[in-house]
């Protein structure tokens, strides 16, 4: 028994112990058991039908348990298994004489590769879903959908899928994957279930036999085979502590996000789907601080029409009836350009969302029309991304006023995202005319520090860089001079080393992922606003983010449950 450590990249933290179970062992048999009596074409159809039905069953059972976000993911996977294009590609190969398993494998590869080639990180993750569906179809053909062992499992795969983590009748304590990204569905599900997930491990791990004990240790971002007794005890203890902590944080949901010296912070959620909107309300969000509207259109062939906007907006806004909803207009930026904008634009400054939208006033007006109508039962606010100048804000307002007048409804509050250095420089003018300001710390940090958003060093903690803090402080001062509220809706709002600084600088509101709401609320409730203000003042005089992180660690680390 050799002990070995496999380092990786953490996509979901925690410590867990369990027995290795590989979910995607290669099929070695050349002949298939007779799952179906028909030819290859029938086998393909039956395999995809069986997978679609299984995933739908899984989705229904998750929905019955109130796990809507996970249910939605399974439902989407089931639609992939029903996709005519995908099946068609496999059937075409079968027509040319290929056996069902090979036809499915090749069709799935081609389909997934075509999606991944769009060079968009979000779609690359959808390609992973297609491969998972393909793997399930192949498993079905090989008769390998039996129940998993009744033990605490550490799932291991070349590429873990969300459905692997959700399969009922098994206890998954952790998962390890050779490939996959931190934004994959598997990573989202792992984080929402509190299952530690390690990515980018050495593929040699795949050669280990099922059933051997394996430890996933977030502190070391590593998996360890044959852990010793001390490691085992520590892991079991950490697992129990994490479970108790999640329950304790949830106990505070009904309490306001207020510091010990009674400074109130408005705590909202960032959402894009109805499932996230439901999760936000369940976890006590005071409405939505950022509704991302562009995500459904990243693979869209043309500017979305009014009806296409409505199809995506109505379900999520219906969930949010009566709530504050800060809806951001389409934000097609360099790192998320749909095909109809990407040609020849890579890296070009024009790739930023707002100039593109203003160059298409009819497309822009269509989104306003849909928002006004779909959001009629919400407390709707509209937010413009990537604003660089007062002229841009005025152009947006004129268009919104025209659309609202046509519809015979009042013009909703119109605010801006501050995520460009130009907006920081023009903060005073912008604050005078915008109804509210929201700091997009993800982009602003990268813009100010010259980082690419896909750069692994572009972490939310980098918002503690004194240059970024200084920019945020300027925006807050300008906004408060004009009685405008400032929110932060980038990921830094939820980072333990940045939240106290944002509160200390004077941000009025934080908007975070629904999964982070309990933790951020509990953190706010254990901070003092006056301490945060002194801390922020000192941080602004420091030179590096490392110095600021140390400062926060020393004076402002509340002990959460
Ligand atoms: C919230 C932000 O926008 P995005 O949706 O691009 O992350 C941001 O940049 O901080």
UniProtKB/TrEMBL annotation:
Domain named PEP-utilising enzyme mobile: residues: 151-220
Keywords: Kinase, Magnesium, Metal-binding, Transferase
Cofactor or coenzyme needed: Mg(2+)
Keyword Transferase assigned: yes
Pfam families: PEP-utilisers_N, PEP-utilizers, PEP-utilizers_C
Domain called PEP-utilising enzyme C-terminal: residue spans: 250-527
InterPro entries listed in its UniProt record: PEP-util_enz_mobile_dom, PEP-utilizing_PTS_enzyme, PEP_util_AS, PEP_util_C, Phosphohistidine_dom_sf, PTS_EIN, PtsI_HPr-bd_sf, Pyrv/PenolPyrv_kinase-like_dom
Domain Phosphotransferase system enzyme I N-terminal: 8-126
UniProt cross-references to PANTHER family, sorted A to Z: PHOSPHOENOLPYRUVATE-PROTEIN PHOSPHOTRANSFERASE
Family of this protein: Belongs to the PEP-utilizing enzyme family.
Protein's name according to its UniProt entry: PEP-utilizing enzyme
Organism of this sequence: Streptomyces humicola
Upper taxonomic lineage: Bacteria, Bacillati, Actinomycetota, Actinomycetes, Kitasatosporales
